[in-house]
Amino acid sequence: MAHQQWHCGPAGCPPHGKRRRGEALEQAILAAAVRELAEVGYDAMTVEGVAARAHTGKAALYRRWPAKEDLVVDALHFMLPPCGALPDTGSVRDDLVELLSAMAATIRTPAGTAMQRMLGSQRCAPEILETVHGKVIGPRREMLLEALRRGAQRGEVRPDAVTVLVAQVGSAMILQHLADDDRPVDRRVVEEIVDQVVMPLLRP
Amino acid sequence: MAHQQWHCGPAGCPPHGKRRRGEALEQAILAAAVRELAEVGYDAMTVEGVAARAHTGKAALYRRWPAKEDLVVDALHFMLPPCGALPDTGSVRDDLVELLSAMAATIRTPAGTAMQRMLGSQRCAPEILETVHGKVIGPRREMLLEALRRGAQRGEVRPDAVTVLVAQVGSAMILQHLADDDRPVDRRVVEEIVDQVVMPLLRP
DNA sequence: GCGATAAAGAACGCAAGCGTATACTAATCG
DNA sequence: CGATTAGTATACGCTTGCGTTCTTTATCGC
């Protein structure tokens, strides 16, 4: 006779009271996968862990995805942060602060952490890397470049500073900052980076 | 009756003809650990794999290190790339190209790759992270700063550009470049980074 | 309400990898 | 040379995690 005792994940929260099915359960599983990915990374992630976080069993997972990898791919598609609109404050400096702050905030999100860990992981499929580059990294780089282009049209930016290389400086510095000590990169740090590093690069 | 058949690693090479002992074997094991670390990363590294690469058995490993982690710590100490002398060409630009090229080359080394993978790994002990920071990252950042300081004394560098933040720009860009596509960062790329990004930051 | 469906939860077989133990053999030292 | 030390090779037990299967039970369509 089973004890009918809720095993309840680490948080000790009860399993949503009622039993979920179909779409609702699928979303919960994907969200759990993202959290698992963010907290322990891809290599250490386990199917059992995801199931426990979603307050369900492995069977519910394997009914939907043939293998762990497929779940991860779907989870990434599910959670990859949307790009947001390109800010247009009228000044490159403020556009850049805006953009980079948004990026920094995104990275601290569970989804962002998961993404970062995926990129750092050695065992993830090339398909995953491509997805991340195509949906997250590429667009943001393009947005940074666009901000520079507009600045150049306004005469704020030296025309030959409109380069992929220059566009990447801000994000590279933010990532470097996170690598050192992964505390939240607050707006102050972003402004420091923009004012001390990026802006001096752009002046005509 | 054992077949006395050499299992011989992936390369199929015979086990050094004679049987190694003591110091010689220890060095071989550490070197093998570094290669394993570089090729498959910390998470996927196995003791059996290291033993096979070193053409020896696990027993020889466990006689020296109580656990996998201790082997890794020793392997890191064994292989951490030495810093080299601070170049002094008389121009910041050339000093920086020199320094950053050396860093880029180091990263492509097996030892460098191993280090990078350690930092990216989620499961490595904090002790390892501290070792890497103390012996590799810290000193190199200090060298970059010193190059800036000397440039400032010569009047090549705007004094208030002598900052940790500015010093890190070059290395951040190199790492970013590797993250995109991990092809060798050749001197041309380093010069591009220095000339297009770092130098414009320093001009008085 | 009633049957079909699918979720929850646990058990299982399997493979990989850690760390240990054992038998044998080569190297070194007295 | 003979004894001791230490490396080679292999096998074993143990744990972990994958993927499967089974029973019980809640939910949904009719």
Largest sheet of chain A: none
**Pair of chains with the largest interface and how many residues each contributes:** A-B, 28 and 28 residues
DSSP summary, beta strand count of chain A: 0
Instruction: Tell me which oligomeric state these chains represent.
Output: homodimer
Strand fraction of chain A: under 5%
**What gross morphology of chain A would you assign?**
elongated
- Provide the succession of SSEs of chain A: HHHHHHHHH
Distance between the termini of chain A: 78 Å
Into which percent range does the helicity of residues of chain A fall?
55-70%
Content-based structural category of chain A: mainly alpha
Counting DSSP H or I runs of 4 or more residues, the number of helices of chain A is 9
Q: Spans of chain A with pLDDT under 50 lasting ≥5 residues? A: 1-14
Global Rg of chain A: 21 Å
pLDDT averaged over residues of chain A: 85
List the topology elements:
The structure is a homodimer of 204-residue chains.
Chain A: H1 22-44, H2 47-53, H3 58-62, H4 68-79, H5 92-108, H6 110-120, H7 126-153, H8 164-180, H9 187-202
The structure holds a DNA duplex (30 and 30 nucleotides).
Can I get a quick summary?
By secondary structure, chain A is mainly α. In chain A, 67% of the residues lie in helices and 0% in strands.
Structure description:
The structure is a homodimer of 204-residue chains. Chain A is mainly alpha-helical and 204 residues long. The first copy, chain A, is 67% helix and 0% strand. The radius of gyration of chain A is 21 Å and the shape is elongated. Mean pLDDT of chain A is 85; it is low at 1-14. Chain A binds chain B through residues 40-41, 43-44, 117, 119-123, 161, 163, 165-166, 168-169, 171-173, 175-176, 179, 192-193, 196-197, 200-201, and chain B through 40-41, 43-44, 117, 119-123, 161, 163, 165-166, 168-169, 171-173, 175-176, 179, 192-193, 196-197, 200-201. Chain B binds a DNA duplex (30 and 30 nucleotides) through helix 3.
